[in-house]
Amino acid sequence: MNGIMDEPEGATPLDPDELEGLRQKHITTRGELNELEQANIETGLLWLAGRRQTAILTDEFLRELHRRLFGDVWRWAGTYRLREKNIGIDPRLISVQVRQLLGNAQYWAENKVYAPLEAAARLHHELVRIHPFPNGNGRHARISADIFLAEAFDHPPVDWARGADLANNSARRTAYIAALRAADANDFDPILNFVNASM
């Protein structure tokens, strides 16, 4: 991949207005963008580890998490998208569906509706399906699912990548995208296998 617009399979394309939100104008390739975003994610994870205990299943927390993970890269980080994408719901429905999902997740945890890994996989899938942000939704959803596992279930995080690079085309990424698409069609077995929830 050379240009900044070259996305791996299953990635959300950035439109020109969203690209205008790039803070570092010297970035010209997808590889440079991935490195910059990864550095920001690592900073965001440090913030996450050091924050005071707060409610995680809130709209405000999800937006703040996205801002912390991507705010050094994108001006629009932490704000819900306003445009249709190749994936995701109508942008006018995002805040309502996010709040509904978070309420459902709270119920799942409090009432032990699902085992921890299944609850996390379902939260992750729904966040990706809603696709609230212009970009970074998969990474944000994986980190959100891991926080949910830790704080609602005292469970270790999912090993999403298993040594592969989910940001670029790989067999693991292909399996991940296929599992999400199967869950879109109400077949949750592949995503449960992906996170080892069925073991």
From TrEMBL:
<feature type="active site">
    <location>
        <position position="131"/>
    </location>
</feature>
<dbReference type="InterPro" id="IPR003812">
    <property type="entry name" value="Fido"/>
</dbReference>
<dbReference type="InterPro" id="IPR036597">
    <property type="entry name" value="Fido-like_dom_sf"/>
</dbReference>
<dbReference type="Pfam" id="PF02661">
    <property type="entry name" value="Fic"/>
</dbReference>
<dbReference type="InterPro" id="IPR013436">
    <property type="entry name" value="Mobile_mystery_prot_B"/>
</dbReference>
<feature type="domain" description="Fido">
    <location>
        <begin position="57"/>
        <end position="197"/>
    </location>
</feature>
<dbReference type="InterPro" id="IPR040198">
    <property type="entry name" value="Fido_containing"/>
</dbReference>
<protein>
    <submittedName>
        <fullName>Fic family protein</fullName>
    </submittedName>
</protein>
